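To the wet lab folks,

You asked to see what we're planning to order before we commit. Fair enough. Below is the target structure as C-alpha cells, and below that is the sequence we designed to fit it. If anything looks off to you, flag it before the synthesis order goes out.
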C-alpha cells in the first residue's frame, strides 16, 4: 500500500491514487483532491460528495453515476459538467472512496 502527502495529510492510496481508507478523508482533503484534478468545489459538488460518503457508509460500495443521479435528482449531464470527463471516477476520487464497480 502506498502513501501520499497532500497539504500535510499523509494518505494511504492505491495505484491509481484513490484513498484506501475512507476515514482519512475530510473536507480539506476533498478540496485538495479536487484542486489536483482541476475542479473548484461549489455547493452542487458538496451535495454529491456528501451523498456519496453517506451512501458508502450504508452500502459499503461506491455509488454509480446512475444511482447518484437518481437519488439526488441531478441529471447525468449535470454530473458531467460538475466532474468533467469521467464523472463517476472523479466523484469517487474527490469523495475519498474506491472507484465504482464497472469504472475503467
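Sequence we intend to order:
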Amino acid at each position: 500500500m502506498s502513501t501520499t502527502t497532500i497539504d500535510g495529510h499523509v494518505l494511504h492510496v492505491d495505484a491509481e491514487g484513490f484513498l484506501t481508507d475512507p476515514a482519512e478523508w475530510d473536507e480539506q482533503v476533498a478540496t485538495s483532491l479536487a484542486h489536483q484534478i482541476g475542479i473548484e468545489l461549489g455547493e452542487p459538488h458538496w451535495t454529491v460528495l456528501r451523498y456519496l460518503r453517506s451512501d458508502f457508509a450504508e452500502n459499503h460500495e461506491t455509488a454509480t453515476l446512475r444511482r447518484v443521479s437518481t437519488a439526488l435528482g441531478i441529471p447525468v449531464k449535470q454530473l458531467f459538467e460538475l466532474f468533467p470527463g469521467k464523472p463517476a471516477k472523479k466523484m469517487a476520487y474527490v469523495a475519498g472512496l474506491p472507484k465504482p464497480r464497472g469504472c475503467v
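Structural context that might help your review: Residues 2-95 form one domain. The chain has five helices and two strands.

Thanks,
Computational group
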